[in-house]
Write a structure and sequence with these properties.
Length: about 475
């Protein structure tokens, strides 16, 4: 996807990156995909033995049978007199290049990997001779109609960019160490002649048996048609508060202190979506599946059965091992492949706090939300505010990313801690300006009438001027 179809054929391509970034694994997968398509491959190694290559492949469950392996690795002693072993430190670069070209002529491969240029660079007496030899190799490979991938570990002087001009394309790999958790890997196309590609950095992960690349999301490339109707929560009073419900293709932020009921309100929309026969997806950074099952039972939603039957997708991302690109890919998979129409992200606090080294998380989240809106998805974000009552503050202002903002608050009344809900923003239509009480009962969530006789509910300690009937004490007025 990033290369818009793959490496152009019969060209010389450079894969560069520091040791440990995944060059060898990607190169092996390059040859394995070629073998699957019936194309002959050759791996020329100057930095590892063929035994090490086969071991690396076996760790991924791969077999290198059918792929030529040519070893030019310096050894301290010749263990097998019948085996031709080359000592690169004892010969000139020209002799090494001659052996490589002779093996290519003998095997006649369509795909070639040379690992690595840093070993060839050490053999060169001067920079000009090294450049001439690489240029000669490029012309030789083109004459044999080979597609070649050369590896470089960037151990030379000046960032070893002197050969970029000779390459048809340059792919740069990078590994970023975090203060906690797994390192993050990413790549970018630094150069691609005469071909379209997706620029910028893209996260990728090396898993047993595969290299997974997560292209950076471009929301503008995903704009299908959809019906911009409204969806119901299943609670008439809550729908009235929101002016009829949530609009498809919009983002709603549930904002309030911890314990105010944000996740329960989000789960109400998840249950309503499944009642309509739609698939929903929940990405929970904070809550375990067991806790969700217990809490959802009070709202009349059987989460366990919904996940088992495929009506609900539930994932608990591990931020210490997850890259932003992989998280975006998980969301896209739920929407594009599995058809989720309601997506809940719980919570933004944990997502942002778990990856402090990342500098573009808010921009990436903005692009993800734009993509979900373009897909006609109802997106529900949860953001916990700091504090409980009184001076409640936002840890970060993300309301600009939301089309609708629902505010939840605690307040004191009649010797109890109560909960209030109100809508402070809705771009796609008119909404109530009132403040309503809501509660969670064993039979589910209930939203009461407007709190007409209260002043200062949002401060947490309101003054009460009316009768007790204004409170949600009975259930006959609940929606």
């Amino acid at each position: 996807m990033i290369l818009r179809g793959g490496f152009p054929r019969e060209r010389l391509h450079l894969l560069e990156g520091a040791p440990g970034t995944g060059k060898t694994t990607i190169a092996l997968q390059f040859l394995l995909h070629g073998r699957r398509d019936g194309r002959r491959g050759l791996y020329v190694t100057l930095s590892e033995t063929t035994t090490e290559l086969r071991t690396s492949a076996a760790n991924h469950g791969w077999s290198l049978d059918g792929i030529g392996l040519f070893e030019l690795v310096p050894l301290e002693a010749r263990l097998d007199r019948q085996q031709s072993v080359l000592y690169p430190s004892e010969v000139e670069l020209g002799e090494t290049m001659r052996l490589i070209t002779e093996r290519i002529e003998a095997d006649d491969p369509e795909l070639v990997v040379i690992d690595s240029l840093s070993e060839l660079r050490l053999l060169a007496q001067d920079q000009l001779a090294y450049r001439r030899q690489i240029l000669a190799l490029k012309q030789f490979l083109h004459g044999r109609r080979c597609t070649a991938l050369v590896l470089d570990d960037l151990t030379g002087p000046n960032g070893v960019r002197e050969l970029h001009s000779l390459m048809h394309s340059v792919v740069s790999l990078e590994q970023i160490e975090r203060s906690y958790g797994a390192a993050r890997r990413r790549l970018r196309i630094a150069k691609m002649r005469g071909a379209e590609y997706q620029s910028g950095w893209h996260d990728f992960a090396i898993t047993p048996g595969n290299v997974l690349i997560f292209p950076s999301l471009i929301a503008g490339e995903h704009q299908p048609d959809f019906d911009p109707g409204t969806v119901s929560s299943g609670l008439p009073a809550l729908d009235e508060l929101l002016g009829g419900g949530l609009t498809r293709g919009t983002t709603t932020m549930l904002l309030g202190p911890s314990g105010a009921g944000k996740s329960s309100v989000a789960l109400q929309y998840v249950g309503a979506a499944m009642e309509r026969g739609e698939r929903a997806a929940v990405f929970s950074f904070d809550e375990t599946f067991e806790t969700l099952v217990q809490r959802s039972a009070a709202l009349g939603v059987d989460v366990a059965d919904a996940v088992e039957s495929g009506r609900l997708g539930w994932e608990r991302p591990n931020p210490s091992r997850l890259s932003p690109g992989e998280f975006v890919w998980q969301v896209r998979r739920q929407v594009e492949e599995l058809g989720a129409r309601v997506v809940v992200i719980d919570s933004l606090n944990s997502y942002l706090a778990a990856m402090p080294e990342e500098t573009a998380l808010i921009l990436q989240m903005h692009e993800l939300l734009t993509y979900l809106n373009n897909q006609g998805v109802v997106t529900v974000l949860i953001l916990a505010q700091q504090g409980i009552v009184g001076n409640v503050q936002n840890p970060i202002d993300l309301s600009f990313m939301s089309d609708t903002v629902v505010l939840l608050r605690f307040f004191e009344a009649d010797g109890e801690v109560r909960k209030a809900i109100s809508v402070v923003k809705k771009r796609t239509g008119v909404h109530e300006l009132s403040i309503r009480e809501f509660r969670l009962f064993p039979e589910g969530m209930q939203v009461g009438p407007r709190l007409m006789d209260f002043r200062g509910v949002l401060t947490g300690v309101p003054s009460f001027d009316g009768s007790r009937d204004a409170l949600l004490g009975g259930r006959n007025e609940a929606g």
